Amino acid sequence: MREERSSKNYVIRVHDHPRDVDAAQWNALLAEQVSATPFMRHEYLVAMHESKSAVDETGWQPQFLTVHDGDALVAACPLYLKSHSYGEYVFDWAWADAYQRHGLRYYPKLLSAVPFTPVPGPRLLARDAASRVVLLRGMTQIAVDAKLSSAHVLFLDEADQQAAREAGWMMRSTVQFHWQNREPQRYADFADFLAGLQREKRKKIQQERRKVAEAGVTFTAQQGTEISREDWDFFYRCYTRTYREHHSSPYLTRDFFQRMADTMAENWLLFIARRDGQRIAASLIAIDPERRAAYGRYWGATEHISCLHFEACYYQPLAWCIAQGYQRFEGGAQGEHKMARGLLPVQTWSAHWLAHPQFAQAVADFLAREGAGVESYLDELNERQPFKA
Question: In sequence order, what E strands does the chain have?
Fold first, then answer.
């Protein structure tokens, strides 16, 4: 840990291990945020580090930033020195390439994000707008002092967006697809949800579900401590198989998921598919029982069955959310195909600060053009709503 500087009565510190930050104070700050998610819990971020999933060796060097008023933690954010752009889901590879072509170094860069987790939510944990500004100023000062190319904050909530805009950071948007339970009267069951879809969308889902059922596949759902070590082992085998099939390496270690079972069991829901009594697929969903929100995270299968992915990753979770009275299901990054399954487009945001004035202007111009394209894309998507008028 090192103390960077003071601002008014604030002391700003940088920590090279998330466990150096008091867990109770961190989680208390998180609980005050309207759009809090389980992924910003101290336990989640510590598990990322101590499981060797997000550490120096994998390109995520912790530089957690905290702001103190005496002994009280008044603001904090997860912060990393990144030596690449993997696991972020906001793509700046072209920026890095442009720097390299001009003989400049883009990496390492400074990043505030939850590793490998493209879920919108608070990144600047703060009790007021002034404290958010202190965090942003702290980031830019760290970047300037270390002669870094840039600083970035990914998947911000509305309060963070406002702070970043007021601080003069460049804003970038992309699109995700989220499901919302009907208001004011929530869906009675999955059939009620289907009834609200346009006829061709409803028939397509029914056909996909029928294929899985006719293949003899059944599902069970286990939540929290109901998920056994053997279940976690099977899920992890499916998870790593998916990466191998895409000629890639998994970001998360088996130890990470064990730490989730040990410290955040209440935030996990596991669907397991079986055929002829044998397990053939698994889909892991993160849940927030307090805020009635669910998040699609990881899946994998040991064999191919037509439409099994849709059943495991969308229809089973949506049916569960409806039955449990959950308000929201977020389907993860990208995926326009999710819209035909009742997940609607949502704009997500990231904020960026670049040290080099000419590159900053070039990126600002690019983001203006890209942003106009995203707005047009959203308009187009909203004209193709899957629900009845």
Answer: 2-7, 10-15, 60-62, 64-69, 72-77, 80-82, 109-112, 125-126, 150-154, 170-180, 217-223, 268-275, 278-288, 293-301, 328-333, 344-354
